Amino acid sequence: MADFADRVRGPLVPSTGVQRPLGVNDVEIEGGPLGRWQRINREASITLGLERMEQSGVLPNLRLAAGEGTGPFQGYRFQDSDLYKQLEAVAWEHCRLPDERYPAFVAESAGLLARAQRPDGYLNSHYQVVKPDKIFAELEYSHEMYCAGHLFQAAVAAARADCGGQELLAVARRFADHLVEVFLTGGDDGIDGHAEVETALVELYRLTGERSYLELAAKLIDNRGKGLIADSGMGPLYAQDHLPVREADTAVGHAVRQLYLEAGIVDVYLETGDESLLECSVRRWEDMVATKTSITGGHGSRHDGEAFGERYELPPDRAYNESCAAIASIHWNWRLLLATGHGRYADLIERTLYNAFAASTSADGTRFFYVNPLQRRADLIEDAYLGRRREWFACACCPPNIMRLVSSLGHYVATVDDEGLSVHQYAPGRIRAGEITLAVETDYPWDGRVLFTVESAPDTEWTLRLRVPAWSTRTAPPAGPDGYTAVRRVWRPGDTFALDLDMSPRLVHPHRRIDALRGCAAVERGPLVYCFEQADQQAALEDLALVPGTELRVVERDDLPGVGRTVLIEADGLLLPSSPPDGLPYSGAPTDLPTGTGVTVTAVPYHQWDNRDGGVMRVWTPLA
Question: CA angle at residue 43 from 42 to 45, to 5 degrees?
């Protein structure tokens, strides 16, 4: 089948792969939770982000670097990256729904960046203003190439979306050429302590055809594990420099860094065909999913280093699950999906998208989580990042990162191959792929029926391939070994095809080796993970337990205060006796079976929590 991605190309355009992405505006999401999120992202989140670029010091810092401002440098050494992610967000949003404000902001920002950029192409406001004698001398923690990577991705987006991007692309290419001169042809073997530039260099190569960008990305990946990160500070494990990538078997260190590195590894595979890169990345993916992934799709079980922990170290209350890690995971899984065509990667994208990622943003789009734990206790004393969503952060890596992914969600819905069209995520709207146009009607994820109507099609056979999520145990029609149901035929305008997914609510139990979750269960329905929030309970949540084998009852609500439309789950619970502590909370006597008062407990989708009273919450609940 012809390559359908002939319109505005999206964030990822590999030259090879089992599946090929559509253009970024070939999928229109029209309603449903994802469509609502895109609307709120445009109306509230991006508007807030643009204001914060000035207020948080990002633009003033660049004016200092350009010799146009006064005062001290503000914020972190990686502050520039907030602007680059914001630029990418407005570029994809302009492609989705054109707005003259967006190309104007891109052009104005590009002009400032060009004035701040050194003649040799180097650009980083912190090092130009604060440490001009330390340029590329502190790569372990400098984030210089990390910031460059986000600049490159912003430039690619602005160029592809025709959003005032030519000057921004020129700035990005000058910096990329400088990196090539220093780290490829210049013989410097340094690597940035925070991976991200690798995946960005590959995409810049795809846009421009400049092969040295791909070669540099490959070299930076090959240089991991050569001891280039010093043992002092956070150390090599934190920055994935402990082993060469082809030898490492498990995800370690800072979660966001590991996941962005994996995206770059698969990108280089897609352009070079180096099977050893795909093999090692898949090997780590399988281990990570089996032993280091939260039920919400979140990653990073330790606050110390924002890091992956040991295998099966998945505490609910101490889960870090940074919002940026959810985004990086989606990036990696999307590349693995394109490389292999297997539905398991789309399954993890869905789990992450509707849970770990969706929880990052408030219902009104104005507040964000940096950290996404699976339990919040009553006496929150440690860190405000754990307590409530916030409008912004001193380290604001997450909010603009969230915005850039939400504005480009259509990119992750469907792909094509030589046989036809594959649909990986379900939302109401339209999918256009060359001669094919499909209308999609669904109330997903609240309802499991997805109806496809062919509006246009070629007069030849082609295959419609639809993902069947692994959680759907009774599906019509059923899935094949790759996780998809496929129908090949000559499709005519007006033809319809329905997919019916099993939306029965279910109790989920943890692996026996996850010590922190023994004796607990969680509730899921469709792609949604649920949590119990104090606002919905008849008694203190910390004294409630689920009755094993309880019936799970679906309760639809059109407008839950503070939340909006939702589907709640009611279950049978026990209110356990609560007595004041009397000495140590341990006893030599055997624990009796709990006795208590029968109550109804109510669960809300995890992504909708913290939109009301900010009270106690838990995903994993004790079984009585």
Answer: 70
* Token digits of residue 114: 């060009």
Local structure of 385: helix, strand or coil: helix
Q: How far is 133 from 127, CA to CA, in rounded Å?
A: 8
Q: What phi, psi does 83 have (nearest 5°)?
A: -65, -40
Pairing verdict, β 429-433 and 27-29: antiparallel
| Residue 397 a catalytic site member | yes
513 and 491 within one domain:
no
Closest by CA position to 153, among listed 294, 269, 260, 64: 260
Q: What SS3 state is found at 4?
A: coil
Place of tokens 């602007």: 83
The domain of 491 spans 415-500
Of these residues, 88, 271, 306, 322, which one is catalytic? 306
Query: Which one is catalytic: 95, 397, 520, 531?
Result: 397
Round to whole Å and give the CA distance between 326 and 448: 24
Same domain, 158 and 232: yes
Reply yes or no on whether 395 is catalytic: no
Q: Is residue 7 part of a domain?
A: no
List pLDDT tens digits, range 214-255.
Answer: 999 999 999 999 989 877 678 899 999 999 999 999 999 999
- In this structure, are 335 and 420 located in the same domain? no
pLDDT tens profile 399-417: 999 999 999 999 999 999 9
DSSP 42: I
Nearest in space to 330 (alpha carbons), one of 297, 304, 282, 379: 297
Q: Give yes or no: residues 348 and 442 share one domain.
A: no
pTM here?
A: 0.97
Within this chain, do residues 286 and 361 fall inside the same structural domain, yes or no? Answer: yes
- Strands, E assignment, 3-73: 20-21, 27-29
Does residue 208 sit in the same domain as residue 166?
Answer: yes
| Number of separate domains in the chain | 3
